Amino acid sequence: MSGGLILETEGLCARYGDVEALHSVDLSVGEGELVAVLGANGAGKSTLLRSIMGLTNTSGTVRFRGQALPQHDTVAAACRSIVLVPEGRGIFGPMSVAENLQLGAYVIGGTGPEFARRRERVFSLFPRLKERLLQAAGSMSGGEQQMLAIGRALMADPQLLLLDEPSLGLAPKVTVEILETLGRLNHEGLSVVLVEQKAPLALKLARRAYLMANGRVTAAVDPEEIKSHDQLARLYLT
Asked: For a Cys staple, 39 with which of 30, 75, 195, 212, CB 3.0–4.6 Å?
């Protein structure tokens, strides 16, 4: 983390009505770092990402490059180039691939050299999107839709990319392809928070990992110290 911290949460709590879904979560992400957040269903991983984006009722602090973000303010997070790829992808199915990508770059508009540069970058990462540019997004395969969801996020030129279960429902080969692309983006300097149930794949990419259970961070893990599936399973049970 030689470049300093891009994201910190301190005492972050989140509620859905009377139910507290996050309990005083502290974590950090360095500039250019890929951090994995692991845990079973219901552990609070998705709520954590939504809370960072200002989409939930929260208390505590979220800092981006040392500055506290306003609570419950998604626009403030987006204006700082924090972008969330949600679980379920969130693409606009009736719209074409091209139109979905245009929406990702709405701040700079759908034309011009910067728009063209960003779109070509997406095509270099996901060539299938260029092949299906005029196709309705909802008619594509699950893997292609996930590529589109990530590509649309990249059109916003994020400084911090939050991904919620990008491998959900995908074939193993496609999962590896997408996660390898995320690793490539990280190696090029993009800071990433990756929520993922496929822990072994996530740990291959991550520099650090947090394990969550019941809305709490239960362990901070150095991926290089996880030598076996048994060791990882024991961490899940602690």
From this structure: 212
Q: How far apart are the first and last CA of the chain?
A: 28
Question: Among residues 193, 149, 178, 213, which one has the least CA distance to residue 50?
Answer: 193
Q: Read off the pLDDT of residues 17-39 as tens digits, 9 standing for 90 and up.
A: 889 999 999 999 999 999 999 99
Q: Which of 197, 186, 205 is nearest to 45 (CA)?
A: 197
**For the segment 113-134, what is each residue's pLDDT rounded down to a tens digit?**
999 999 999 999 999 999 999 9
Which of 45-49, 160-164, 166-170, 184-188 is predicted least confidently? 166-170
Q: What is the pLDDT of residue 226?
A: 78
Residues β-bridged to residue 35: 193, 208
Structure tokens at 153: 């996020």
Q: 35 with 194: CB under 8 angstroms?
A: yes
Angle between helices 172-187 and 113-125 (to 10 degrees): 130
CA distance 140 to 92: 12
| Strand ranges across the sheet with 191-195 | 82-85, 160-164, 191-195, 34-38, 208-213, 216-221
